[in-house]
Amino acid sequence: MNLELSEEQEAVRRLAREFTEREIVPYAAEWDRAESVDRAIVKKLGDLGFLGLTVPEEYGGSGGDHLAYVLVTEELGRGDSAVRGIVSVSLGLVAKTLAAWGTEEQKRAWLPRLCSGEALGCFGLTEPGTGSDAGSLTTRAVREGDAYVISGSKMFITNGTWADVVLLFARTGDEPGHRGISAFLVPADAPGLTRREVHGKLGLRGQATAELALDGVRVPASAMLGPEGKGFSVAMSALAKGRMSVAAGCVGIAQAALDAAVSYAAQREQFGKPIAHHQLVQELIADISVDVDAARLLTWRVADLIDRGRPFATESSTAKLFASEAAVRAASNALQVHGGYGYIDEYPAGKLLRDARVMTLYEGTSQIQKLLIGRARTGVSAF
Ligand code: FAD
User: Fold this and answer.
1) C-alpha separations of 51 from 56, 190, 367, 369 in Å
2) Is 283 one of the annotated active-site residues of the chain?
């Protein structure tokens, strides 16, 4: 892998960095307090092509490789994980999955709107009773003529109240576990679908997270994404790439933690000199710096493997596991560098720590990533 970025990759990173500095950083704390990102950000992300990265241009995407996608995701994550998550879900989990599994008609119907930001997508896998054990989900889709009628509920759905389309997973067969699951593209305004915002999150407070209730939601049979009974494969293929995107967002958090710690250590004085002169403060900063580099390299490796058409799922779990734990450590270390000031929201360290904390939970907890990596190395499934 060549670690030198191409001119195109440098340009897209610069674009994302300038956008983040101008449109996100000045507002992130305010959005966090208000528990809502300004929705106008979606159109701005779409206008720059950030919601269509890696999606073919013929479907309204902006093309580009996965390293470019990772670079943009890191920059957005450096500014505000709540904004980064909008892109990771609508593009990473929904549009990219649709591009990979969709029929021509499905792609034409949804991709141009998703890529432009005119529409947003959300990913409905988790249910109140099934998180890590997603293969046991109970939402059911029953065939009635040339339609399916779907009933059940979904929990913790990012973009849930904002989305125009739900990539929804439901049981269509009687086979136990993941074999009876199919994927559907469900318009969010379908009769019988109601959405309720989940409030009081520790972090990602600006992001719209929702509970979905489906009561006899009718969709045409043509709304099924991928073959019947293959919904779990659709979900796992989405999450394998999604974990790279979460990892990139975590690199952004860790980088923001490093920037904040270095800047504070240079200006805060104790014992007659800037605290950067104290060796134990330097140790905190060095630990953050190592975490940033290691997490970034693991994440770039995944992008490189995908772009070269090589297997990447275990490497993606590895990057997500390491980067998410690293982001929590880095944010906590940055808070320590700030002393008591790190504990109030005038400084960014506290928000970084709150936002980082969910990264070890969603798209597969750290324990689940370890089981996936362990299975790949030993050939033994612990599930
Ligand atoms: P559980 O599965 O109940 O796990 C509880 C604990 O048990 C964890 O520590 C877990 O690691 C451990 N555990 C479980 N099974 C095992 C095992 N076999 N071995 C060892 N330990 C185990 N879901 C979506 O579908 N779409 C979204 O857009 C989405 N966005 C989210 C946004 C937020 C802010 C949050 C908090 C969650 C989101 N989720 C989403 C759900 C998320 O993916 C789940 O919360 C996650 O998969 C964990 O499931 P759970 O919360 O039910 O925890």
Assistant:
1) 12, 24, 30, 27
2) no
**Is ligand 1 within 6 A of the CB of residue 89?**
yes
pLDDT value, residue 2: 84
Low-confidence ranges of the chain (pLDDT < 70): none
Which pLDDT score, from 0 to 100, does residue 176 have?
84
Which of 223, 336, 216, 215 has its CA nearest to residue 286? 336
Q: Is 88 in the pocket of ligand 1 (CB under 6 A)?
A: no
Give distance in angstroms: CA of 156 to centre of ligand 1: 9
Composition of the chain by helix, strand, coil, percent to 5: 55, 15, 25
Domains in the chain (CATH in brackets) are 7-120 (1.10.540.10), 123-229 (2.40.110.10), 233-378 (1.20.140.10)
Q: What is the sign of the dihedral through the CA atoms of 289, 291, 293 and 299?
A: negative
Which pLDDT does position 383 carry in this prediction?
Answer: 87
What 8-state DSSP symbol labels residue 358?
A: G
Is 0.85 topped by the overall pTM?
A: yes
How far is Cα 66 from Cα 87, in angstroms, rounded to an integer? 14
Residues recorded for the chain: 383
Instruction: Give pLDDT tens digits for 77-89.
Output: 999 999 999 999 9
